[in-house]
Design a protein that fits this description.
The protein has about 375 residues and is an alpha+beta fold. It contains twelve helices and 15 strands. It folds into two domains: about 160 residues, no CATH class; about 200 residues, Nucleotidyltransferase, domain 5 (2-Layer Sandwich). The protein has a seven-stranded antiparallel beta sheet with strand order 2-6-7-1-5-4-3. A six-stranded mixed beta sheet has the order 10-9-8-11-12-15. Strands 13-14 form a two-stranded antiparallel ribbon.
Length: about 375
């Protein structure tokens, strides 16, 4: 399976200027190549290269391979939409390949930059990237974000040996409890909700002021909330996969595709519902399960919150409140999320499950 590694560059002030100048020039050249190709009705790499390559070399003072990469960026956009030509932002990401990038050991990288020539830039990364550093091959994307430079490298990582499960760990996803499993463990979402509420209230307060200090504060807050939620989802997904692997079970989750369109909420609840990362936790579970060799399946979520996990009776009256479940048929009582997680587990055991992307990754 493929993973993307984020490596931070640590250039000095002069190197930063060179990198920014290079990104601006390459994006300008990519916009030029897109305009030339669109005007001529040429949308693939060979045709645009015939029309624009020489002009890009002379007009933008780029190396041969960097000119090719600029044209390639325009071609990628035409693959998605040929009805208009794109214009690229000055500091948009640019692609480096083996001809214009080379790693010098574990802590430095050689990059082509303007004015024409190579420069050696230090690298900073963590243990996660270090374990997979030797797998980096092919091209990397140079990204400039909030005053910092990053290299994004795609690596092929072998999936773990598939575990043939005899049982499943059912996972019910929600807002009050982010993830509840069929063993009865609930992972509360109260901390995430409080952080998001606090940030939402602070943003509204600062946006009303419209002062220079308020704008600076808003810029500092940008992304903080999403980083917190992302960290929380990483921790939860790691715990779930570890527990499933330890017990030799697969993981059963709800198929939540289109949940935002299906679910309606009152005005006060819309911000909570639509700011929660429904798909992010699922994505993390998918790739972590593939790495661990744990089978992950998606189960139809219909009526899982109304069906009794003990007798199978389904009725709207069974769900007394957000957290209380009491079967009107057999009297079984349980926390509503735990009952739903057990129904999800049963769905994976009894019905042909909809296999997630994870399964395809495991067997590729």
């Amino acid at each position: 399976m493929k993973l993307t590694l984020q490596l931070r560059l640590a250039p000095d002030s002069e190197q930063s200027k060179r990198l920014l100048a290079t990104m601006e020039r390459v994006n300008e050249a990519a916009t030029f190549a897109a305009a030339v190709g669109f005007k001529a009705g040429a949308f693939n790499q060979p045709n645009i290269q015939k029309l624009a390559y020489a002009k890009i070399r002379s007009r933008f003072d780029l190396s041969a391979q960097m000119a090719v990469r600029a044209i390639g960026k325009a071609v990628e956009c035409f693959r998605r939409d040929k009805t208009k030509y794109p214009t690229f932002k000055p500091h948009g990401a640019i692609t480096y390949d083996e001809r214009i990038l080379g790693f010098k050991g574990l802590d430095r990288v050689s990059l082509w930059a303007l004015p024409v020539g190579r420069m050696i830039v230090p690298l900073i990364y963590g243990e996660y990237q270090k374990e997979r550093f030797d797998r980096i091959k092919g091209q990397c994307d140079l990204v400039y974000r909030k005053g910092k430079f990053y290299l994004y490298a795609t690596v092929d990582v072998p999936s773990g040996a598939p575990i043939e499960p005899t049982d499943f760990l059912g996972i019910d996803l929600g807002i009050t409890n982010i993830a509840t499993d069929s063993d009865g463990l609930r992972r509360s979402g109260s901390e995430v909700k409080s952080v998001r509420y606090r940030h939402r209230r602070l943003r509204a307060k600062l946006q009303r002021k419209l002062t220079r200090a308020a704008r600076r504060r808003l810029k500092l807050l940008s992304g903080k909330e999403s980083r917190f939620a992302r960290h929380t989802n990483h921790c939860i997904s790691k715990q779930i996969v570890a527990e499933a692997k330890r017990t030799g079970r697969g993981i059963a989750v709800e198929e939540l595709t289109g949940i935002r369109e299906r679910v309606t909420a009152g005005r006060k609840q819309r911000a909570v519902l639509h700011s929660w990362a429904f798909s992010q936790l699922r994505q993390f579970l998918t790739y972590k399960a593939a790495l661990a060799g744990v089978l992950l399946v998606a189960v139809d979520p219909r009526n899982t919150s109304r069906t009794c996990a003990a007798c199978g009776h389904c009725a709207k009256e069974n769900r007394r409140s957000q957290d209380k479940f009491r079967c009107v048929s057999c009297g079984h009582e349980a926390h509503a999320d735990i009952n739903a997680a057990r129904n999800i587990r049963a769905g994976a055991l009894c019905k042909p499950p909809v296999l997630s992307d994870c399964v395809a990754l495991q067997h590729s």
